[in-house]
Amino acid sequence: MSGWKKYLTNLNVFIYQVSNGHLGSRLGGQSMLLLHTLGRRSGERRTASLAYYRDGDNYLVVASNWGKENHPGWFYNLMHQPRTTIQVKSNTITVEARQAQGEDYQRLWLLVTRQNAQYIGYQQGRKRRVPILILTPT
Questions:
Q1: Is the pLDDT of residue 1 over 60?
Q2: What is the domain partition of the chain in residue ranges?
C-alpha cells in the first residue's frame, strides 16, 4: 500500500475508534467497518478499516489490497484465526469468517461489484482471484 493510502486508512481507523463509529463509518460513499485480527506471527492486535457489504445477516469484505498481486495482511490473519470481532458504527459484533467459494462467490462478486466497480479493475490482469470474505455473526 502506498504511503498516502496507508496514512488515510490509519487515520480512518483512528477517527472511527475515537468517535465510537459516529465518524468514519462512511468513506467515499462506502459503508466502513473495523476488522480486528491478531497478527498470525506477532500475536499483536491489528485493526483494518474496510468497506463492507451486506448479504442477509452476513457482512462481506473484499481482500482486494488496492489491486496488488498479494492478499492484504488482514486476510492471512483472518484465515489463521477466523473467529474475531468487527465494529460497525458503535456496535461490536463477534463473527466467524470464511471465504466465498463456487456459485456463492459468483453471486457475491456481482453484489459487491455493483456497489463498487473498482474491484473489477483490481481483478483484471491479476493472477490471484480477489477473495470475498463472509463474516457471519455468531
A1: no
A2: 3-137
